Amino acid sequence: MFRTSAGFLGPDRPLDGPLRWLFAPKASDLGFALRTTCAAFLALTLALWMEMDSPQWAAMTTWIVAQNSRGQSLSKAKWRLIGTCIGACAGVALLCALPQEPWVLFPILALWSGGCCAFATFLRNFRSYALVLVAFTTTIIVLSGANQPDNIFMIALSRATYITLGIVCESFLAALFAPRLETVAHEHIRSHLLDALHGACIGVSDLLRGQADGLLRSRALLSSIPSMADQTEFSEIEMGPYSHAGDHARAGLAAISAFLARGIALNVHMLATSPLPAGFQPQLDGILTLLANLADKLAKAPSIETALQARDVLRTHITLSKQHGMDILGQFQILQKKHPGPTPASHALLESRILQAAMVKLLVELDRVLAHIVAAEADTPKDHFRFDRHPEKDVTLAFNNGLRAAAALCFGGLLWEVTAWPEGSTLAMFVAVTSTRFSSFENPVMAASGFLRGAVWAAVVSFFLVFWIIPDQANIETLLESLFLPMLVGGLALRAPGAVAATAAAYNNFLPFMVGPANHHRLDEINWLNTTPAVVLGIGLGVLVFQLVLPFNPANERWRLRRKMVSDLQRLATGSLIPSSAQWIARSGERLAQIIRHMETTPDRLTEAYLTGAIGSMMTGLLILRLHNVLFHNLLPAPQKNALKNLLQTIGNMQGYTLAPAQAAQQALAILLQATSQMTNLSAQIDLGRAIGALEVMQAEFETNAIFMDTTRRFKPV
């Protein structure tokens, strides 16, 4: 007996295999597949009714812009339309400027496409896709009009028209079946923020208890926050242009990153101070109780009321922690007058003050998280808050991406010119489409391989349609009946997990193209045998170019990433790079995410060592920023300032395997500790404590990560 609601195929056998998405799909997945199939049919029918020369492109476009959420579909449709229009104009301009000049046209086209793909690396979400689309739309129009340059304007206009038609049809049906967009989007933002806060509370609680799971949980959440922030953009689109909930959501996620980083920092300070001062343990227990209660309430009944209640309790803890820190400072000054020299008691008070300062920073970040969660829920018209993310621009990766795309396009054009194959333009076109579409991916071979698998599946299915089923048909109704089941299966596969979805995306795109529906003729067997192999071969050659031109290698990419991390630490030390703490934490989170993306299915010892080194680099960078802040205040005496400057200079000049930064931190720590008993200025005493806390951690980090920071050789953890 077949029961989709329970997911059973028979009375006792659960359907949990790899084909569950096909035989027992979720209702939402089935609805998506049906809706998008109907949108593709509507676009195809209208294109045939309007006598368009390539009606299959309208159906293809509906599948291309159809995404898991309405916000994603709207964003992709918008940027696809923009990219198509710009690419169409560029294609007309290039072919008009260089008609019948293939040996000049292809290199210029390659430079244009490579430049678009390079700059696409600097953008996020579908803005990056728009630039990629400019590249391959230009290429498609140029190659389509190469043999008929007098008709280039109509070719460009036709492409823009049927792509617009596909976008309109998909948007129309999606709008009909996507009610309450704003409410659902608000719910998504709220649930994502509260879920992230729940995970952060558990991770920081484990860190403060000294449990190993705390670092693993915090590290995983830190690496996932960049993608969560990217997804917030789509919910923001669904809520409309006047909502600022998305800005508060991104700011809240950034504050969660800072909260996790402060938790890791406090954990490191606690390890350096062990055993903990007696007066600190009760406060720590109170914070642990607060975090445990908040995590428990978020798990059982996540709501804004929970955040508001937690914020009231949290303010009391912040006030008490600040007051306790001032009390410790007062006790230190009293002891300083009684016993001018360094004593065990004065050192214990100093360590207590360092821990108190780290605790206050942790609580302030948690309060900032709660404030943004509450503001995202309120979303009042008078709220004009903006939060812009400025991700790091990887110039090396951009150059590699642009070079791959340019090389692939030149290769496709050369193959067409040398062989004079009648379908050579189709082959060159899909070499260009593959190389530009996936050039901005970190691992283009993996992404393009799914594209190739989808094209092969589309070729197999279209073979049966073209050779056996469609020849007996004579009207649009029977054509749609023939295409219904293959497209519906593709739509279900598009919502399947893992590599199946990547394969399905290409399958859905290429199936209409390979079937080739038209008004006054059908795709006969000879044309299919000429066209379809050219498409598949073009995609295969595009994948081959990715394997030959600057091929992706996880080990090389990790090494490059490690060099960037160490280089950034040196630039921080010399002052040529001075981001805010939030920006540095966000950049570190991106790098953690990259390391995780480059690892195998399960993390190995090397990956774990890389992640540990990346966390150490993040902490060291935050502490370098703290030392710069202390030096900016200019309150410390000259010997102490010179010691800190010497440490920063040592970090800026470190090369290969060296313990010089750790030794410089140890020397600076000794000089600053000597000054604590003579320092009478209250502000200078606070800065001195901040610097000493930073030096204690930096000494340990540079000793632990000396091998990781040696970028002259491969990293082999001991």
Detailed description of the structure:
- With 718 residues, the protein is mainly α.
- The chain is built from 25 helices and two strands.
- It has a two-stranded antiparallel ribbon with strand order 1-2.
- Helix 5 runs antiparallel to helix 6.
- It starts with a strand and ends in a 14-residue tail after the last helix.
- Residues 1-15 have low confidence and may be disordered.
Let me know the largest β-sheet: 2 strands, antiparallel
Q: What spatial order of strands do you see in the largest sheet?
A: 1-2
- Please report the total strand number as a whole number: 2
Task: State the assembly state of the protein chains.
Answer: single chain
* Rg over CA atoms: 30 Å
Q: Number of DSSP helices? A: 25
Low-confidence stretches: 1-15
Strand content: under 5%
Looking at the structure, what is the overall shape? elongated
Q: Could you tell me how far the N terminus lies from the C terminus, measured between alpha carbons in angstroms?
A: 57 Å
- Helix/strand order: EEHHHHHHHHHHHHHHHHHHHHHHHHH
Element layout with pairings:
Layout: E1 2-3, E2 8-9, H1 20-23, H2 27-49, H3 56-65, H4 70-97, H5 102-120, H6 125-144, H7 152-176, H8 181-208, H9 212-239, H10 245-273, H11 280-300, H12 304-338, H13 344-378, H14 395-419, H15 424-437, H16 444-469, H17 476-494, H18 499-515, H19 525-548, H20 554-574, H21 581-598, H22 605-633, H23 638-653, H24 660-676, H25 682-704
Antiparallel strand pairs: 1-2
Helix pairs in contact: 2-3, 2-7, 2-17, 3-7, 3-18, 4-6, 4-7, 4-9, 5-6, 5-14, 6-15, 8-9, 8-10, 8-11, 8-13, 9-10, 9-21, 10-13, 10-21, 11-12, 12-13, 13-25, 14-15, 14-19, 15-19, 16-18, 16-19, 17-18, 20-22, 20-23, 21-22, 22-25, 23-24, 24-25
